[in-house]
Amino acid sequence: MGKVILTGDRPTGKLHLGHYVGSLKRRVELQNSGEYEKIFIMIADAQALTDNADNPEKIRQNIIEVALDYLSAGLDPEKVTIFIQSQVPELCELAFYYMNLVTVQRLQRNPTVKQEIQLRGFSEGDDDENQNKKGTPVGFFTYPISQASDITAFKATTVPVGVDQAPMIEQTREIVHKFNSVYGETLVVPEMVLPENVTCCRLPGTDGKAKMSKSLGNCIYLSDTSKEIKKKVNSMFTDPEHLQITDPGHVEGNVVFTYLDAFSNDEHFAKYLPEYANLDEMKDHYRRGGLGDGTCKKFLFNIMEEFLQPMRERRKQYEQNIPQVYEILRKGSEAARAEAAKTLADVRKAMKIDYFDDADLIAEHTKKYQG
Length: 371
Ligand code: TRP
Description:
Elements: E1 3-9, H1 17-33, E2 36-43, H2 45-49, H3 56-73, E3 81-84, H4 90-98, H5 104-109, H6 111-119, H7 138-141, H8 143-153, E4 158-160, H9 166-183, E5 191-193, H10 198-201, H11 226-234, H12 255-263, H13 266-272, H14 279-288, H15 293-319, H16 322-350, H17 359-370
Parallel strand pairs: 1-2, 2-3, 4-5
Helix pairs in contact: 3-15, 4-8, 4-16, 8-9, 11-15, 12-15
Tryptophan binds at residues 6-10, 44, 47, 147, 150-151, 159, 161, 165.
């Protein structure tokens, strides 16, 4: 059997450069590698609703944004199936059965869930109006189980994700092992694929904070205009001790250099900054003193424009035909549904809850009552 990819994103906002280096770029490479029999890319609206129950409009607005970001980044609907999670109801049914194979205690130990509960400020107890605190929604608490359905429904062998998703994949593998040992070999054990290098896993925000996040306003969006990119690059956090060009500078914790680590290659130097053969030479000069932030920022801007400009062009084309984008999502969701339905049939059969197709069961009961 060929290899199958499933991965996806919650549609809570437009995708930014962090998403690009952390996953999108890789997906496009995997798509073009020809190594995969099928690739499913899911817009996880149902998962996004697990902690946005009171804001469905936000999710509804961002589905098209994420779809446009996917298409402009180079995902090709001829090669990958892009679909919307909520339009594949089979996923819910799978999750409902998997819930019986996972303990509350195991879910409580999931590090990502733990951290997210903290981050979202859910209280230990129930909703508390006096303290203006909310308890953890059950749907949110159990989303790792729903994620196991997403992955197993497509018999995915390969799940390309960022490190923060590792506990989800681990939990999926446990569910698969448990299911197969209780009901017989049915589900496929997935492997996780991480981005290649460490900088790629986590791109800091333009302000130097650990992560790009919409609420911190430190993101560079894939859909930003050239002007916006220039402004954001120019306002990037560098080295507060590098006041004069001649002062020695630090490259560690300097966002411009972190981004150069992630994006620059030797060809970029030959093309835009031939004074240096590579990033090491440039860093040395910065450390010694004599290299200004302006020059570094201009170089970074040129590199970013080189891959963002074609994305912008592609986005413009799709923006001019939004009904076509919805049609891509509709067709993708239909195809995904057909695939998930096959797995669900296998699951029902393995669990022996396919009563009407179970000739043995009907024969057994016929015998029982006919004596
Ligand atoms: N949890 C993922 C995120 O927050 C989105 C997601 C939902 C996902 N289901 C998935 C990722 C299945 C990989 C596989 O980004």
